Amino acid sequence: MDSSYATIGELQRLLGDRLRALRVERRLTQQEAAAKGALSLRALQQLEAGKGSTVETLLRALKALGHIAALDALAPEPTVSPLAMLRSRKQPRRVRHKRGDT
Known about the structure:
single chain; mainly alpha; 434 Repressor (Amino-terminal Domain)
């Protein structure tokens, strides 16, 4: 599936499918994975079915499956190239807003 054109629902189902495959690869039942992640069986079933879920449920499931490193792929830490900083004429500044603009 080309995920760049996928709908949110399709992406949720893809995520659920991948989590289910990871759980099966780890030879865990849904009950075992839910207990290990301290989440309800229903929450894990919903997540694997690609239905609405919370970030907390996703994180608990990833932790239970020993795959918390997936966060690095999901949201990598921004890096600044030292060479780019040397080439830059301006030093990085904080974003400032005028008073009253929030």
